[in-house]
């Protein structure tokens, strides 16, 4: 089963939950879902677990890929999981960069306030970039070890996600 890594991602947590129900599966983590979507022929017969809210850096959604790749991957299952709480954090002493994942860009726009929005491959990667030079970040709460004195959590969001499980190649309905 292919999904987004690293292990700190909600994608990996959802894959681990799915694998508990299907113990014959093994999880393969990727830096970006496009690593799988652009190389489906390399993974024929495998599964892909991807969130319903997936959006790439170009703004293409899972719905776009669902129909674009309909002859190469087939939806076979779904699961719903609780996401790790999402937090919006502000560093009052840093510049004008807001780091986020493309799926949370609409939320980022609510906090933009003159900041440049920079997208990363995961909420974990967004937090790692924010630690270097960010003013704002949208990340998972579990990624945040401890707030610095000049940081504030602006919002905490509790949500669920629907995950799509695709069979790559060879199966049709």
Notes on the protein architecture:
This protein has 173 residues and is of the alpha/beta class. It has two domains: 2-83 and 160-168, Periplasmic binding protein-like II (D-Maltodextrin-Binding Protein, domain 2, 3-Layer(aba) Sandwich), CATH 3.40.190; 86-157, Periplasmic binding protein-like II (D-Maltodextrin-Binding Protein, domain 2, 3-Layer(aba) Sandwich). Helix content is 24%, strand content 32%. The chain contains five helices and ten strands; from the N terminus they run E-H-E-H-E-H-E-E-E-H-E-H-E-E-E. The strands form three sheets. The chain has a five-stranded mixed β-sheet. A three-stranded antiparallel β-sheet has the order 3-10-4, covered by helices on one side. It is elongated. It starts with a strand and ends in a 5-residue tail after the last strand. The model has no long low-confidence stretch (mean pLDDT 95).
- Please tell me what the overall shape is: elongated
Count of DSSP H/I helices: 5
Give the radius of gyration: 17 Å
Strand order of the largest sheet: 7-6-8-5-9
CATH superfamily of the largest domain: Periplasmic binding protein-like II
The count of strands amounts to: 10
The H/E string reads EHEHEHEEEHEHEEE
Number of domains: 2
Low-confidence stretches: none
**What do we call the CATH topology of the largest domain?**
D-Maltodextrin-Binding Protein, domain 2
Strand fraction: 25-35%
CATH architecture of the largest domain: 3-Layer(aba) Sandwich
Cα separation of the termini: 20 Å
The SS-based structural class is: alpha/beta
Mean pLDDT value:
95
Q: For this structure, what is the CATH class of the largest domain? A: Alpha Beta
Helix content: 10-25%
Largest sheet: 5 strands, mixed
